[in-house]
Amino acid sequence: MKSVKYSLFFILLLIFAMPLQGAAQKMAVITKVRGDVQVRSSQEKKFTDKAAIGRILSDGDEIKTGKDAYVVLIFLDDKSQVKLLENCSMLVQGEKSGAGLDKELAMSHGKLKAEISAQRRGEFKIATPTSVASVKGTNFWVISDATTGDQIIGLSGLVELLNLLSGEVTTVGANQTGNSSVDGEVNVNPTNPEDIPSDEGEGDGDQPSQLRIEFQDANGNIKEIIIDYR
Amino acid sequence: MPLLFIRQTSRVFLIFLTLVISQGKAQTGEGELFHSPPVNYRAGDNLELKAVYSGNAAALSQITLFFRAKGGNAYAQTQFRQINVEWQATLSGNELPRGGIEYFILAETVYGGAISFPPERPESEPVFLTDITPEERQEEDMALDLSRGTAAADLLILSPEPGSTIAEGELVIAVSLFNVPDADLSAIRLFLDNEDITRYATISPDIISVVPPANSVSNGTHTLTLQLANQFGTIFKPLSWTFTKASFVREERQIFGRRGRFSLEYRNEKLQSVRNDLLRAQLRYEGSVSDLRYGLYANWVSNDNPRYQPRSIYNLFIESNYLELILGDFNPNFSRLGLWGNRVRGADINLKLGLFNLHFIRGQLLRPVSGNVSFTDSTGQYVHRTYTYGRNVLGLRPSIGRGQTFQAWISLIQSRDDTTSLHVSKIIPQYDERIHSLERLGNKPVDNLIFTVGNELHLDGRRLSWSQELAMSLTNRNILPGVGDSIALGETVISLSETLDSLGVPFNLEDISFLFIFNENTVLPLPAKITDDLSLEFEPLKLGKYPTLAYVSNLSLNYYQNYVTMELRRIAPEFVALANPGNPSDTKIFDISDRIRLFHNTFFINLQYRSQRDHLIEGTKEFTTRSSNMSVAMSLMPGNELPNVNLAFRSYLSENNASRVDTIISIYTDENDQLRELRIYRDPRLSSRNIFQIYSLAQPITIAGLKNNLNFSLMLTERIDEILQRPPNFINSNLTIKLWSASWTSLWQPQTQWTLSYTSSQSTSSGNQRYFYSVYGLKLAQKLFSEALIWNSSLQYTDAWGSAVYQQSSIQSELRYNAGRHQFSLNGLYQFLQQERKQTHNLRISGRYSVSL
Lengths: 230, 853
Hints:
In chain A, 9% of the residues lie in helices and 51% in strands. Chain A is mainly beta. Chain A has one domain (24-201): Sandwich (Jelly Rolls). Chain B is built from four helices and 58 strands.
């Protein structure tokens, strides 16, 4: 009987230990990096790696950007995209849930743009020290400041914004800005377009850019097409 | 065509191949021999080997390939042939044995020298190549079959986006296998322009990714093809897509980038019979030249009026990595105690050298407002009212450290009213200051000087942040008398010049009037007392008695799912910051909070405690008022269509140590000539407790494929006066509110959503006055033309009864249209209010157009 108890205890121990032993769930891939961006693996205590395109981020990995830097991540399950602007840090957390990943991004401060896929799978939450933005399939900005609170600027769809201090919840829609203050207040106002952060590094936005494509013919002559676009 | 993966003759290719794939190289004084051994070979098939010499090819006489069967005694040899810059040798399939071969390459120069690959002991330590085993051959054969799959796979192309254009250095090929959980990782082939690049790919159960090195893929359009099968042998239909690789001239945009936005807004508003129309024009334009960024911002509004402070805002900025310059209106974060976010019109220069920085501002905090002037016949003088002196500010803030990790600073902020900024003759042309006398009934011109010292420290990626600042102010509440030799200590005016002389201060007060004007309206900033012989005795060590001292310290810790913040703020009674008037005076605040995230951000606990008191210096107030605030909030957000639950409790206690009730007895004669006594009570005692509770629930519900969300919330508030035995007729501030609301949101299609809501409130205030209201709401949102056109509408009806009776109906509608660079929006609001037989109509119509420049 004693051995049965020991066996049961051992089996239970194994059951509880198994999730700890498994490899961390792969969450996202880095597709764009500009400037000083560092990654801390969940196994590491310090930021030891420079982020590079193609780097896979797993559950528990943390990423931080330096001055004038930004990084773009694409999530594996539904192609949702997150852009982290300069001087920002973000912990990527999540787990497999059904056909998708329940994604939880914890950022301490800074600016983040989320473009959630229309084919969203799993939960998508962004937590700051002040608030939690629970996403219903949308594009939005998160501007988090530890001293003043958070701004959620909705670009499309809906975001549910919870203030962690007061427990107040509000819904932020397109062209609306939700404010969640460190005092516990939550409100929603129409977005002032001037408050929308500059989408750094996006040449396909409002920013004029130029594309040059080189062609080489059979004789080795090089010709160039220059396309001006926005 | 990509350089890496196809047989293209290019020196760059082989140099890249060798360097990046790091198979090895041989080196001479003149050039290097680059070669990348293949992974394996197939017996019976020809094997082609390539090499390139990075030096002068004319110096090579020949390159020879020496090869033998694995473990063989003698090497056979064949010559490399030169094709452009590349050298190639082909081994016939008949010459390739099963079991592997060994080989090395020897290049001979015309000068008699030789270099080899491998560079050291090539004969005894040659390159070893294995042939493909029958199993591997089977796999390869299957790879051929992979192209004929027909079953659909739920593959997700992460990068590059089909049809997209990718810049140099930004190409990452990534396909998600997340939704193909049974994919056979050994039966995956990835092709770039028909070249198999599988061996360069990182393959895991979730993702296939390849990062081709820079310059390895040529400019132009390319095709990617992914073939795969699952573990049960089902071959999926190959996934193909194209992208264009180009040498973006992003740099050009960075060197000469510019962007902007212009908007025009008109509002026609009539609320409570008061018109409030507005025309607003905004322009923001930014650009950059190399590391220099510049821009301008203008916000012009039609209701800017010289009788008020400016509402229109304009500025121009230029900034580089080392210098920021703003001209016009700006809101400097200069000193948390002295100047923090207030608008200044002038110049802001911030020199950022890293180790040493200097921030300088100069401008106007308030513009002069003329006010009203009237002539009084009885006194024969003009009287000037409702005016504002122009107020100038000057700030200097040298600092050490960039602030990313550490910064220490001192700052000096001078705010002074301009006594010459008001010109009565502009209002009353006949006024002549040489003839007429003028009395100003309003604010006196003031002078304010603040000195601060502070530092901030950020460690461990800002997980630990600590900042603190200490400030002392000097304030003269009326500088019209000019420089005097006295200063105020409480109610007593004392001679300052004598004190300065006794302390040996080598200047007089006139000399420093450019910095600060001392006179009897100035509060002595040091703790002191007047001795029996009427001399001044300073008490510099009594820090708690400095009347104009302020201190603020903030600490934040973000560790182990806890975000802890602490603030200590102490502002003495006479501390004044004219450039930061929001600072409460005579206050000590301690605030600590912890926000705890648990279970992968599905459960949150928030704790906060805040205490506040006044009367920091004994004797400056009649009694001390204290308040404390405790709050606990919990949020459960489990996800997966489960309900979100939020609970919040807050308790707020405010009390003072007043213990007596003042009674004023007034004797008067009534209409019957009888003497009557009127007692008026003043009860300053305070002990008020506020309890605040919120419960909310959000439950997603899917019915017949329709996504719905049910929200329910309940809020309870109670304010209780805890003082017993108040005087008769004392009106206490007791209040009880019960408010509950419910809403139902339904998403009919991705483009259409409606919300029904109901709110009910019941409140009881002092004297058992009861007030009730109900609000019924309906919201509709419609998106059309791929969300280019968005229409939001809402209807709301409010019915209130009890101590106030009214009914209000409102309808609001908004239409937004996005047409690329152009955006249009139209808003309309109509409210109808009926209260006490009086009907009020409110109407607001506004339109906005904006365009990206």
